[in-house]
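Quick one before lunch.
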Amino acid sequence: MIEPMRPIVVAGNWKMHTTPSDAGDLARTIAARTREAGVIRVICPPFVCLAAVGDAVRDEDVGVGAQTVHHEAHGAFTGEIAAPMLRGLATWVIVGHSERRRDAGETDDLIGRKLDRAVENDLRPILCVGEQLADRDAGRAAEVVDGQLRGALTERDPAALAAVGLVIAYEPVWAIGTGRNARGVDASAMADTIRTTLDGLGWGERATRLPVLYGGSVTSANIGEFFDEPSIDGALVGGASLKPDEMAGIVARAALTARARGLAA
Ligand code: PEP
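Model of the phosphoenolpyruvate complex:
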């Protein structure tokens, strides 16, 4: 999937919220309130809600994604979900979210192997990277993100990852779920760093076509600051993605950018 222009993507990460009995209604409401040309919409509910969300948005142009996937294709891994199990349930997958790095001990090496499983199973990955507050305060943010990308992507085939449509989400850890967001200019500078790192990893021209999202306390009130930056192509939204009013506002703003960038009539 080599897209001629970078698409605009708004992905909602529902984290550990909703149940199979209420997820479908919420997804249906969000889908109906966010019908805008030129914006790729994705909902990532908990595993157990994937089927309900998929059914609810079957007639809508809304992607359904998992929030993680195991790094092996099968085996004795009690409680885990492998990529082949997602067939028919999800077409996207979040990989390397900071909450998984923090709580499940996910390393860059494991995250790279999850990307391999995504590629094998035609799942479109959203790879999350981002620094801790201490790193930013010490002026090491770019170095940390560069290291995360190298750890997960070195020796992985850029053509295969581009073909499956890799998206990178820059999510400064200090901004996730805190109500504190990065500045648009800092997110934009990091998007440039990300594309420079990928270029250095052999992505060449493909690096310029890689969508980079911002994530970290995005709301309908602050999303404009990010879409004002030409390097930013969308948002990975956590808390606000459970609120239809918020998603309506975020996707409406995304659609303005899609039109301005010639992605929608
Ligand atoms: C996230 O879960 O990826 C996220 C950015 O969360 P929040 O928007 O709540 O900060």
